[in-house]
Amino acid sequence: MKVRLLLFAVLRDIIGRAEDELALDDGATARDVWQSLRARHPELRGYAEPPMTAINESYAAPDTRLREGDELAFIPPVAGG
Amino acid sequence: MKVRLLLFAVLRDIIGRAEDELALDDGATARDVWQSLRARHPELRGYAEPPMTAINESYAAPDTRLREGDELAFIPPVAGG
Amino acid sequence: MRYLTDDPIDPRALVERVMRKSDGAYVLFEGVVRNHHEGKAVESIFYDAYRPMAEKEMETIVRDIEQQYPDVALAVLHRLGHLLVGDSSIAIVAASPHRAEAFAACRLMIDRIKQTVPIWKKERGPDGEEWVGWQGQC
Amino acid sequence: MRYLTDDPIDPRALVERVMRKSDGAYVLFEGVVRNHHEGKAVESIFYDAYRPMAEKEMETIVRDIEQQYPDVALAVLHRLGHLLVGDSSIAIVAASPHRAEAFAACRLMIDRIKQTVPIWKKERGPDGEEWVGWQGQC
Fold first, then answer.
1. How many angstroms separate the first and last alpha carbons of chain A?
2. Residues on chain D touching A12 (C-beta within 8 angstroms)
3. Tens-place pLDDT, residues D25-71
4. Beta carbons of D62 and D78 less than 8 angstroms apart
5. Would an 8 Å CB–CB cutoff place C26 in contact with chain D?
6. Residue in D19, D29, D33 closest to C27 by CB
7. Candidates A8, A12, A81; nearest CB to D118
8. How far is Cα A31 from Cα A62, in angstroms, rounded to an integer?
9. Contact A78, A11 (CB under 8 A)
């Protein structure tokens, strides 16, 4: 299935892009996506737990199964205000 | 002794003037002044206790003895803000 | 007069008076004449004050609160005279490096002003006029 | 966008958006870029956001708080992009017939925004730049 990954703030800087189109196995979770990012980006290796996770613009548990066409975003610590 | 009495808000309306020059016996207190106002103004009869009292622009106990040249003011319930 | 004015209040000018480059936040409180009070319609308010004493009380309160919250800078202006619904009667600005102190100092300022500063208001409405707080509370 | 802007914030316009004739007070909170953070000098800040989600989160928070304080009307605007020291990053107005609710609602609004709205800031100073909150807190 195809999932759209959005990257913001420090994650955009580390990964070097604002978004990505992911081709995932059925049943994949946000946590799986995070682990694959960690495998490719040494700056993320210390972060075994994924940051807050949003699916389709709402917060979701990282173990939620993704579905075709979902928009996934990792939300590093927010600092609005 | 001479004492200047200032009247504000509801007291100014009741007594009909903004200030008064009082000739008092030595040892007179703010409470004494209040009782003489009550004797002359029926609207004040229900108020046996004087309102907050200020002497020379500072709050003072109503039983403080007044001194020559003092500026006395009765402070009805404040409503600033 | 530093804390009292007979003119409309410009809250922006108060903010600019207090903000420092180290401040991360300010809280502005404005009291506004509303069209009702304790169930009665209000059309206008007349504010009276014992001006020199009110100035002194304001100064005392500002100093007390700036002592309690040393990082906070305060500015306060109370308007006197005739005000209509929607007019601001008071503006208080509390600027601080951190927001918690700004909120606390601003709140404390308005609470203390309402307790001790010799300012009075006469409310006018369709049912007549009345000095707020007088009836039976002297 | 209702809650986010790329332009300087005009707090007066927010106040006028919410004030009703029955309101006796409003509390305005402004967050301002300050020249320091955790001991480091700050020259400017870049604010980034997940814009559509941030708008939704803001809306949720506004509704929650207006439900908790039914007499309060809220307006909020957060600025994004590059801001300099002294620029306002956020303005929140809480208008209410009574001051206690205005203070409480305004305070709760800024606290909740800081917890969950997907907005990030990168601080820039003489020592370089850094995304606030990232180091070791992911």
1. 37
2. 48
3. 999 999 999 999 988 999 999 999 999 999 999 999 999 999 999 99
4. no
5. yes
6. D29
7. A8
8. 5
9. no
User: Under a CB-based contact definition with an 8 Å cutoff, are residues A53 and A60 in contact?
Assistant: yes
Helix (H, G, I), strand (E, B) or coil at C65: helix
In the predicted model, is pLDDT for residue C86 greater than 50? yes
- CA-nearest residue of chain C to D86? C21
Core vs surface per residue C45-56: b (16+ CB within 10 A) or e: bbbbbbbebbbb
Q: Is D26 on the interface with A (CB under 8 A)?
A: no
Residue D96: alpha-carbon gap to chain centroid: 19
Q: Give the residue among C56, C54, C60 at the shortest CA–CA distance from C119.
A: C54
Chain C closest-CA separation from residue D8 CA (Å): 15
How far is residue C60's CA from residue D109's CA, in Å, rounded to a whole number?
31
On chain B, the residues whose CB falls within 8 A of the CB of C117 are 78, 80
Can you name the residues that pair with D79 across neighbouring β-strands?
A: D5
Whether residue D137 is predicted with pLDDT greater than 50 in this model: the reply is no
Residue type for D137, please?
A: Q
Q: What length is written for chain A?
A: 81
Touch criterion met for A and B (3+ Cβ pairs within 8 Å): no
pLDDT, tens only, D101-119:
999 999 999 999 999 999 9
pTM: 0.94
Residue D25: both structure tokens together: 């007070």
Answer positive or negative: Cα dihedral of A56, A60, A62, A68.
negative
Residues C36 and C42 sit within 8 Å (Cβ to Cβ): yes
C residues 38-77 near D, CB within 8 Å? none
Q: Which of C56, C114, C136 sits opposite B81 (nearest CB)?
A: C114
Paired strand residues for C28 = C93, D28
Count Cα neighbours of C87 within 13 Å in the Cβ-side half-sphere: 19
